[in-house]
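Quick start: what a row looks like.
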Amino acid sequence: MSLTIGARLDQATQGLPAPLAVVDLDALDANATDLVRRAAGTPIRVASKSVRVRAVLQRVLARDGFAGVMAYSLREALWLVSQGVDDILMGYPTVDTDAIAKLAADPAAVAAVTLMVDDVAQVDLAARAAADHGVTVRLCLDVDASLRVKIGPLAAHLGVRRSPVHSASDAGALAAAIAARPGVDVVGVMFYEAQVAGLPDSSAAVRAVKRLSIADLASRRAAVVAAVQDAVGHDLELVNSGGSGSVASSAADPAVTEVTAGSGLFVPTLFDSYRSFTPRPAAFFGLDVVRIPAAGFATAFGGGYIASGPATKSRQPRPVWPGGLSLTSREGAGEVQTPLRLSGDVDLRVGDRVWFRHAKSGEVMERFESVHLVRGTTVEATVPTYRGESHTFG
């Protein structure tokens, strides 16, 4: 009889102090294989913010089907270049002038890193640094992929508030402004359709929004690419799109040259309701029970690892093993202690270990200096997180 995930993790980490973080390598590998299957030949760029463990990034990048990193901080990107990563697309604009200057001063970084922009103010920072060092900095335009619906006098913005660049004319105008500046070159465009990639298939309304968004982008991406290429006078190297929840639909667009995925590797709780793939949770954290405050309750040490986003129940960590545990509504996951309500015949005692899943991928790794990579009932390796390598990039 096969062991439950909790029993396996208990056995693998017996004797290791908690709080502790683990990654189930069998689940990680299965998730990576599934992402490649859904991408159907389109290269997958790994979103580092959803991992934040360099050894795991390297492990995934070594697999067929994956190519390059999408970084969330320019300082992170410069560090990754120093560690041998040679293809990094920034996922967000930066105004860190010191980091931009370091980029322009480093030939390896200039060749490896592509900055993300959606405003000439960001472009000018890069252009000034490029002029100081006589180099050309690579740029990618962040194009708003939200769905804009207008019915009569009513208008709706469905998606996240990212770039001010939405239409082909917006993108063409920005690209033309960049083309007039020396030291910078537009090599790509990015579309992040958060309303497709980042929302679970939780209702008919959400699924309808996804279908409309996919249809909208199928025509708008090609128009944006054409407008930008016309403005800069050369073909684009990359057209990036998607996220873990939209790999298949994004890759199906012939205008897309690469997709991005990260959360689909660890599969946090916010991804449990997707229909586009089978979730295989791979990242967990363990807390130890330190007291029994009353019958039907147990208190674990630590655990207040709340995910970013709206302050709702969905952003709280979820106890998953043993089964029959829930957070209390009054205290939730606490800074120093997390009370748990026990149901049914669950019996926890002081010293027992409880396993949780985080709501978002990667964020929980900011809480730990190391993560244990588990295969079956054995810790195959213990590796540092970004924090464990003395890096916290925000």
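That is the whole record. Residues 25-265 form a domain with the TIM Barrel fold (CATH 3.20.20.10). The first helix runs from residue 5 to 12.
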